[in-house]
Design goal:
This is TetR/AcrR family transcriptional regulator. Keywords: Coiled coil. This protein has 109 residues and is mainly α. Helices cover 78% and strands 0% of the residues. It contains eight helices and no strands. The protein is globular, with a radius of gyration of 14 Å.
């Protein structure tokens, strides 16, 4: 959990910091991150997130999200072609991708 705390206290405003803060707020952080990795964070939060919240997240982290997408454009083209709301899909995908990296860091440490 020390690695999560370090990421959450980072001075940079990134998806990694945001997700680390969310994970640490949970009663069982390890169970939450494991479930989020297994099922996707959108599965755990989809019914709690309002449309405007997702759009605010996109606006706040737009540069980071778009950079991730550019690095994985082949994977994203398929996802976006099936999506009724591309911004929401991009946010969920970027959060899942970032969470996967956090999961790997936590499991190693």
């Amino acid at each position: 959990m020390k690695k999560l705390q370090e990421m959450a206290s980072s001075p940079e405003n990134t998806l990694k910091k945001l997700l680390s803060e969310i994970i640490l707020e949970q009663d069982d952080s390890l169970e939450f991150i494991t479930d989020a990795k297994k099922f996707g964070i959108s599965t755990l939060y989809r019914y709690e997130a309002e449309d405007d919240e997702l759009e605010d997240l996109y606006t706040e982290y737009q540069q980071e999200i778009e950079s991730l997408i550019q690095n994985h454009i082949g994977q994203m083209e398929e996802i976006l072609s099936r999506s009724p709301n591309q911004i929401h899909s991009m946010v969920w995908w970027a959060m899942d991708y970032t969470l996967s990296g956090i999961y790997n860091i936590v499991k190693e440490g």
